[in-house]
Amino acid sequence: MRFFTLILSMACVVLYGYALGGYAGYSFGQGRPDYVVWGLSGGTLCGAAAMRLWKKWMKETTPDILIFDVDGVLIDTRESFRLVTAETVRWCWENLLEGDADCEGYTPEHFHLCKSHPAFNDDAIVAWALLRRMKRDRARTGSKSMKETFPTLEAWGKELSTYKRGEIAGEILRETETLPLTEVRAVMEEIYYGQELYEKYKGKSAHNIEGGGFWNYEKPAISTDWKALGLPVGIYTGRTRKEMSLAQKHLNWLDFPQEMLISADDGISKPSPLGLSILCERSGTRSPLFFGDTASDKEAWLAFRKGVFVAIGPILKTEALRDGNLHFDTLEEALSLLLEK
């Protein structure tokens, strides 16, 4: 719409130029009344159409709701989910697949690669896919060493390129030889929650770990209460509601309305735009300012095709700067500038 507005505006200038040229010709006895008539009428029509399109675009893009992703946006998870994923891979490799966990494995660089792919929003799927690749390499080489089977950044990038958007769910359903995703997720939940919370939330004992969970190392990325943000607020996250309750404790958003939260428990996950659509419908809004930090967040917004996407943090920074899209290092910085607080 902005492109068409620009074209119409340029046409308006050109046509008015023709009208001015036709009128100026009278000074030399070579006036062109047809230039004047067509230039003025055409330029006026193009200008009016451009104004109408511009007003429509402004109406459709002026934010009337704030929608947030959680991990990496509302919550600083640098000391939680990446490390939880790394520990899950190590634990499963050693205890369930009988390998030797003799290296770090999942690095921040691997994490960035995964989160730059729209099919890898779920950290349990990331761990499962890595274990699948490692077991495949063990079958080829005979090595049980994690150091020798864990993919390099280059190899993992090539692996990710084989997954098309939305295909990974089918891969998991067809997989019979690595580990069921349910087992990987159960280990990850124990590591994230810790022994006490796992038993509280799951109603059964933790078998794989002891002590506190990695959720304790998370920090809020915003100090403002949701009610003070000046617009309706929604949350679209890959967390479960139990995981979300821990985020709400960190944020001190314990009174956040649950009907404005779309989580994994709703059976909706990014990059589907359905979560954005539902939140807008429930709040009577149409143009979200959607804050996300991964490719799946951006893909969800692109499919929704309304509002504005704001990239937070390092994962989408290069892409945002290249494409001229909004990017901020922190959520506090974004809210300060965009909401003029």
Care to describe what's here?
With 341 residues, the protein is an alpha/beta fold. The chain has 3 domains: 2-61; 65-76 and 219-338, 3-Layer(aba) Sandwich (Rossmann fold); 81-216, no CATH class. The chain contains 15 helices and 8 strands. It has helices at 2-24, 33-61, 81-96, 108-115, 123-141, 146-149, 153-161, 168-174, 181-193, 195-202, 241-251, 274-283, 295-304, 317-323, 331-338; strands spanning 65-68, 75-76, 219-220, 233-236, 261-262, 288-292, 308-312, 326-328. The strands form 2 sheets. A 6-stranded parallel sheet has the order 5-4-1-6-7-8. Strands 2-3 form a two-stranded antiparallel sheet. Helix 3 packs parallel to helix 5 (123-141) and helix 9 packs across helix 10. The two termini are 29 Å apart. The model has no long low-confidence stretch (mean pLDDT 87).
Present the secondary structure layout.
Blueprint: H1 2-24, H2 33-61, E1 65-68, E2 75-76, H3 81-96, H4 108-115, H5 123-141, H6 146-149, H7 153-161, H8 168-174, H9 181-193, H10 195-202, E3 219-220, E4 233-236, H11 241-251, E5 261-262, H12 274-283, E6 288-292, H13 295-304, E7 308-312, H14 317-323, E8 326-328, H15 331-338
Parallel strand pairs: 1-4, 1-6, 4-5, 6-7, 7-8
Antiparallel strand pairs: 2-3
Helix pairs in contact: 1-2, 3-5, 3-9, 4-7, 5-9, 9-10
